[in-house]
Specification:
Radius of gyration: 20 Å
Number of helices: 9
Largest sheet: 6 strands, mixed
Distance between the termini: 69 Å
Helix content: 25-40%
Structural class: alpha/beta
Strand order of the largest sheet: 2-1-3-4-5-6
Bound molecules: zinc ion
Order of helices and strands: HHEHEHEHHHHHEEE
Strand content: 15-25%
Number of strands: 6
Shape: globular
């Protein structure tokens, strides 16, 4: 607890005075551009990684960066998605997994979940990722199995994300873009899922190339009128 008190003392003395105007402006409301869904892991710090200011990122964290598919059952993450998209009108949703994820390790070693039945139940939302990952050829290479499951989990959660009605509607008319990333803790790198190529690529591409994106082509593009044919 002492480290939290010391940290808040530092914030009050050094950080807040420098950004007093921003904090007072934000006291009346927020307009974040991105909903950032990531793992609860303490090593993943979105605001630090993206040099984000207060008010920019609407962050939702849970074990395994999971998005349950649409159903009658309400969960915190689904409510957060609905609020971020319909009310805050975010333009982007990122689902971000990471290396050395304890949730992914547990999925690969189900015996470790015997004492934590709620975690085990929550991680059922990774079942499709587990089954797809099992199709990959990495027998005898546990590191590869973890890497593969981590990637397939992000892809599966993006699939689940598309089943949320508010997300589906905005994707259809091109009003929202979605992204699936893996943060490499040791190397400070991010790989992003590219829907066109069906694989993960560096988030920061070589000069002139577009950043990989998980968004599919919108189906309901506005009809251009008064265009000469
Ligand atoms: Zn994790």
């Amino acid at each position: 607890m002492q480290s939290l008190l010391d940290g808040f003392r530092h914030f009050r003395k050094e950080v807040y005075p420098r950004q007093r105007g921003l904090f007072r402006q934000l006291a009346g409301g927020q307009t974040p551009h991105t909903l950032f869904i990531t793992c609860a892991d303490s090593r993943v710090m979105p605001e630090l990684m993206f040099a984000a200011q207060p008010g920019e990122l609407f962050v939702y964290r849970n074990i395994g960066n999971v998005v349950p598919p649409y159903s009658q059952h309400v969960s915190g993450v689904v409510a957060a998605i609905e609020y971020a998209v319909a009310v805050l009108q975010v333009k982007h949703i990122v689902v971000c997994g990471h290396t050395d994820c304890g949730a992914m390790k547990a999925v690969l070693n189900p015996d470790s979940l015997r004492e934590v039945p709620n975690v085990a139940a929550w991680l059922k939302h990774t079942d499709s990722a587990r089954q797809v990952a099992a199709q990959h050829d990495h027998v005898g290479h546990p590191e590869d199995a973890l890497h593969c499951l981590t990637e397939e989990n992000v892809v599966a959660q993006l699939d689940h994300l598309r089943t949320q009605p508010v997300v589906a509607a905005r994707l259809a008319r091109g009003a929202l873009r979605i992204h699936g990333w893996i943060y490499d803790i040791a190397h400070g790198e991010i790989r992003a899922f590219d829907a066109e190529q069906g694989r993960f690529l560096p988030l920061l591409p070589e000069d002139g190339k577009r950043a990989p994106e998980a968004t599919l082509r919108p189906r309901l593009v506005p009809v251009l009128r008064n265009v000469a044919v």
